[in-house]
Design brief:
Length: 651
């Protein structure tokens, strides 16, 4: 550990800037709430303080994980250590803000002064009644663990999971706010998640970069260049997601005639100014920093951008405390309130295929993954390298399968009917992962991404290689762990009550879909994956792992078909779908789908295994032939000589 790291963390010179910025954000938010007739209570101050601490935590871990390199041994360098320590202190403030937000949120929801809820016995009784207060409690636990992790880690490898944990800590509160209720709450929540993550990376990353420049850190040009590319992506994500979120929650006719619409316009204007000013400032500072290696230009030019960002945070805080206008809006139906949208009728084949509702999370992510894959193939082709067409077809088909399962009529009806949900489950956990692992994305990335070179800081290729050889990847691809996760998720989700509790929440549907895809990928990666796995199995071992999963999968479908207890009965009955006359029959249909859906993927996997086995034998035979040509078949000659010698002894 560098001995000067603690002293360097104290010389950032950003504490006054953060104090001024947080004060500006709080004052702006309070003033706007007073002007618009909102409640400028202590909650807004706590909210601004908490959000400022959150973005500093996320940005500092971003710097340590991806913007500055570690030492050659993998231990954090002085700059990474300083950023992690800053993240630890900011996480403590974030934890305090999350804890304070619980009584303030409950008091605001109940219309009571916060002093009436400061007694722990009273607070614990009523905190569980407000969904967002429970989200703040969950956030406090996550961030407290994050703060502890920042105090303990010394290696670069642990900063990466800490960074993703900090991003995950943004989500509980985001999915329980205004966006989680009313009609179209699925689109509103998905767009808000993009918006918050983009804002945290942009604002937090710039603050961390300023701290890095102020302390005179190494690799400042590299960090500035990497952040500049990320900032442009974050701004585009925030712009698109902000427009979608405002469009869902605010009719265009009320954009200029309501307090909420004026706040939306103000935040939009601030984002436009930030995007333009930030772009030109970064373009100028990047060139100067790369040329001179000095952080003065970065601090001088980007300090104004940070203050503008805090102004935007104030607008966002005021916006979160202002409900959207309800005038002229039609009250949503029960189905729309529960799942976010209405259904046109019974799920006919035509509706399942063509009645689409695009999923902003999985649809956008897997379209982007498909485009990135094709760009990688294009780079190889331009370089003169070959890439099998079958792998490209498999990857694109896998991405399209995910898009179809989440955005087509199947994805539209999946939250409302158990049988359709099971169709989506089988597509996401059985078919899509098979196609994705056959695409060999890691192998493609290793060949398409440039190497950092000896003595240079590691880049995306080295990060990906480190993940493949990480302890996490080794544990997940262990045959017994992969089998337990893949098979156990069927029984653990549906027969433990988790599925019943998850049906009411859109975020839980997102988590289930992500779980299906990831668990399926982890299982099929060592079985038929093209990419090198940390735990590579021989052909017979792969076949044994595959056949070991079949009885559990078939038994799961049989249990569903023979069960007399309806899973998620209260939720499905509350929808009152006229075409579902029996929830039990719909569940049995879902069990039949689960039982029968494993046949087609099994055929695909068996064919892939046989082809890979045959190709492996062919490669071994070609290597043996080349070796025989090179040494005159010395192995065969030695073997024949041994046989002649043994024959002579026998005679």
């Amino acid at each position: 550990m560098p001995t000067d790291a603690p002293s360097r963390t104290r010389r950032t010179g950003l504490i006054p800037l953060l104090i001024v910025g947080t004060t500006i954000a709080a004052v702006v938010a309070a003033a706007l709430l007073v002007v618009t007739g909102g409640d400028a209570s202590g909650l807004i101050v706590v909210r601004v303080l908490t959000e400022a601490a959150a973005v500093v935590t996320v940005g500092s871990l971003l710097l340590a994980a991806f913007l500055v390199p570690p030492q050659g041994s993998g231990t954090l360098a002085a700059d990474g250590y300083a950023a992690v320590r800053t993240a630890g202190w900011a996480a403590l403030v974030w934890t305090l803000g999350a804890v304070l937000s619980v009584p303030f949120t409950v008091a605001d929801a109940l219309g009571q002064p916060v002093t009436a809820l400061l007694e722990p016995s009273v607070l614990f009784q009523v905190a569980g009644l407000v969904e967002q207060s429970k989200a703040w409690m969950f956030t406090a636990v996550i961030v407290a663990l994050l703060a502890l992790g920042c105090r303990l880690v010394l290696s670069w490898g642990w900063t990466v999971p800490l960074f993703f944990l900090s991003v995950f800590a943004l989500m509980p509160v985001a999915v329980t706010g205004h966006s989680s209720g009313g009609g179209s709450h699925d689109v509103a929540t998905n767009s808000l998640l993009y918006h918050l993550i983009g804002a945290a990376l942009w604002v937090g990353g710039l603050i961390a970069l300023l701290a890095h420049g102020r302390r005179g850190g190494d690799h400042l040009g590299l960090a500035t260049s990497r952040f500049s590319r990320l900032a442009l992506v974050c701004w585009l994500v925030m712009a698109v997601s902000g427009v979608i979120n405002a469009w869902v929650r605010l009719p265009l006719s009320q954009l200029f005639g309501s307090e909420y619409g004026l706040l939306v316009l103000g935040k939009t204007l601030a984002l436009v100014v930030l995007g333009v000013v930030g772009y030109f400032q970064r373009e100028k500072s990047v060139k100067e920093v790369v040329a001179t290696g000095s952080g003065r230009a970065l601090v001088r030019l980007a300090g104004v951008e940070v203050l503008l960002m805090f102004l935007t945070l104030g607008l966002a805080a005021a916006l979160s405390r202002t409900p959207p206008p309800m005038e002229g809006r039609v009250l949503p139906s029960t189905v729309e309130l529960r799942i976010g949208y209405d259904l046109a009728g019974a799920p006919t084949l035509s509706r399942l295929l063509f009645d689409w509702r695009f999923d902003l999370i999985f649809g956008a992510i897997f379209i982007a993954l498909g485009v990135l894959y094709l760009l990688g193939v294009r780079r190889l082709r331009k370089r003169g390298d070959a890439w099998p067409v079958g792998r490209t077809v498999a990857w694109v088909a896998g991405c399209l399968t995910v898009v179809f399962a989440t955005s087509s009529g199947v994805g539209r009806y999946a939250p409302a009917m158990f049988s359709i949900h099971m169709e989506a489950h089988m597509l996401l956990s059985m078919l899509a992962p098979i196609l994705l692992v056959l695409g060999g994305p890691v192998t493609l990335a290793m060949r398409a991404l440039p190497t950092a070179g000896r003595g240079n800081p590691p880049g995306p290729r080295e990060w990906l290689l480190a993940f493949v050889h990480s302890p996490v990847a080794k544990v997940l691809t262990n045959p017994f762990v992969a089998l337990a996760l893949f098979v156990g998720s069927f029984y653990g989700l549906y027969f433990s009550g988790l599925f019943d509790g998850a049906l009411d929440y859109h975020w839980a549907h997102l988590a289930m879909n992500a779980h299906f895809i990831l668990v399926g990928y982890v299982f099929y990666w060592p079985v038929i994956g093209i990419d090198p796995a940390p735990n590579r199995l021989p052909p017979l071992g792969r076949l044994g792992l595959l056949f070991a999963s079949i009885p559990f999968h078939a038994f799961f479908g049989i249990v569903l078909m023979s069960s007399q207890t309806v899973i998620g009965d209260n939720f499905y009955r509350s929808l009152g779908l006229p075409w579902v006359t029996s929830q039990l029959e719909d569940q049995r249909l879902g069990g039949g789908i689960a039982w029968a859906a494993g046949e087609l993927p099994l055929i695909v996997v068996m064919v892939a295994l046989l082809v890979q086995w045959a190709r492996s034998d062919s490669r071994d035979a070609r290597r043996a032939d080349r070796r025989a040509d090179a040494d005159g078949d010395a192995d065969l000659a030695a073997y024949n000589a041994m046989l002649r010698k043994m024959s002579g002894k026998d005679s």
